[in-house]
Amino acid sequence: MIRVGFLGCAHVHAAVYRDELRVSPRGRATAVFDHDRARATAFAAADELSVAESAEHLCSLVDAVVVTSEHTAYPELV
């Protein structure tokens, strides 16, 4: 099972990707990092995801990431 993390959760499609991973036979959402800790906590609560302290920490917890932050944060996170 591939552990998938979310780098940011502000993008409108973040919840859609999280929902799709619920039914995926090959991947599972496991963690999230967002600059806005409250937003990350709320996003994580829907599936009991871990909330990472930093983007680097998130990457150490997962096998793959989906970048779903605000578009302006993409360069920093990627």
Structure description:
The chain is of the alpha/beta class and 78 residues long. It is 37% helix and 24% strand. The protein contains four helices and four strands; from the N terminus they run βαβαβαβα. The protein has a four-stranded parallel beta sheet with strand order 3-2-1-4, sandwiched between helices. Strand 1 (2-7), helix 1 (14-22) and strand 2 form a beta-alpha-beta unit. The longest helix has 9 residues, at 14-22. The mean pLDDT is 95.
Would you summarize the structure shown here?
This protein is of the alpha/beta class and 78 residues long.
* Biggest beta-sheet profile: 4 strands, parallel
Average pLDDT number:
95
Order of helices and strands: EHEHEHEH
Overall 3D form:
globular
How many β strands by DSSP?
4
Note the main attributes of this structure.
alpha/beta; 78 residues; four-stranded parallel sheet; 37% helix
What are the SSEs and their pairings?
Blueprint: E1 2-7, H1 14-22, E2 27-33, H2 37-45, E3 50-51, H3 55-61, E4 64-67, H4 74-77
Parallel strand pairs: 1-2, 1-4, 2-3
